[in-house]
Amino acid sequence: MSRTNAPAPADREDGTTTAPVGSLSHGLKQRHLSMIALGGVIGAGLFVGSGEGIAKAGPSIVLAYALSGVLVMLVMRMLGEMSAANPASGSFSVHAERAFGPWAGFTSGWAFWFLLCVAVGLEGLGAAGIMSGWFPGTPEWAWVALFMLVFCGTNLAAVKNFGEFEFWFAALKIGAIVLFLVIGALAIVGVIPADEAAKAASETAGGTGGGGFLPNGVDGLIFGLLASLFAYGGLETVTIAAAESEHPVQGVAKAVRTAMWRIAIFYIGSMAVIVAIVPWNDPAVAEKGPYVATLDYLGIPAAGQIMNVVVLVALLSAMNANIYGASRMACSLVARRMGPQAIGRTFGGVPRLAVLVSCVLGFACVMLSYWSPDKAFIWLLNTIGAIILVVWFFIAASQLALRRRTERETPEKLVVRMWLFPGLTIVALAGMVAVFILMAMEPGTREQLYYTGGLTIALAIVGLVLQNRRGDATAAPAAAPEATPVEPAAADGEAADDDKKPVAADKA
Fold first, then answer.
1. Is residue 3 included in any domain, yes or no?
2. What is the C-alpha separation between 372 and 358, in angstroms, rounded?
3. Where is the secretion signal located (predicted)?
4. pLDDT digits (tens, 9 = 90+) for 425-457
5. Hey, which of 280, 301, 371, 499 would disulfide with 58, CB 3.0 to 4.6 Å?
6. Element holding 231 (H helix, E strand)
7. Which tens digits make up the pLDDT trace of 138-190?
8. Is residue 461 part of a domain?
9. Does residue 13 form part of some domain?
10. Residue 291 domain flag
11. Residue 311, domain extent
């Protein structure tokens, strides 16, 4: 792909080099993308959060993860199709803008940015909790500040540093899950016996678990489904990162194809191993986490500390990835004149101001957890509760709108194709609507749905106002191309989609 049409960098009086808004580098390699795709979704939600789902759903948690995994695979296939056809650091935000207009890109993009910034703070708190346990008496906020400084510095440097961090983080997480699956399989066939003390404690807690496949009925399955669905969040980052790779089209296509089935094996396989070994109603599953409970049950020495290290790595990896994703999404939005131009300027191919703003907001969320834990912090948690589902809805709706257009105008760009289009796209949209309905029915998730809905509506209104103010070309359903050297394919596609007055990104 040609890079000759990249805007030239500007020399500043202080000797540093800046580039126009949205101009990014190409420091990521295929191995980085592949590991980002695999490791980005493997976080504390799987290692720890899945325990609550198992405690409510019982053995049916396997079905819950399978159902949600199918939905996520469909979403990633759709996103892979659009991102391979038009690689952009704004990913689904750019696709939504091309499909429905600037308001859709604005809404999905800033909602996702807000989600990532809050998640940075939450992951920092989780990692700090582990460190404070290892070093009693140390304040958690100090650990968060340290982690924030490290990963802010990593993301302020060249993008290849982010790629290397994520490569090794993801390798450790994947290695831990593969080892867990191997140990679990050996235990199931009887090669590794269970520890007698742990076995006795588990049997005292609940015998063999009891209750059959659906011990808590359909309600338990629904709870497990909702818990598992949001544990899959994080796959979107690979399509954002692809825009800064050496070969964006080939990179995102390969990463999406290989990641989906492997992640399904990791998630569904892990749940199957856990419920096959440990009684689902053993209190340790929810208290210690399912992985620790399983290793304890098998008598693996220092299982708790081993998993604490893995969870710590998962949290730090997620912090790193979310700072990266938030800064690139903000940079893309600004390049399309949907935010303050100052934070979109790049330095050496890195949007450093966007990185700093994202880190500051993430740390502010941490401070809220201390200053107002019962009000402001809870409001933040509820607000981000269903954002990822809103993003997935935009992805599916955009793919449904753009596929025909791409087939008609640039069919050669469809190097990744959604299966059985449009049937499975419609099935995915219907599945998301069903999840929204289930969330409204469950008391524990209803409030999250309301708060997320309020944020989405507010952003949509602001986006529509901005779109109407800009008028003329920007009101058409086509995205303004990002001013970045990685986007020639995206710019061509967008130009074909908008035969009126395409708006270029501002060049300060």
1. no
2. 21
3. none
4. 999 999 999 999 999 988 878 999 999 999 999
5. 280
6. helix 217-231
7. 999 999 999 999 999 988 887 777 788 888 888 888 888 899 999 999 999 88
8. yes
9. no
10. yes
11. 23-483
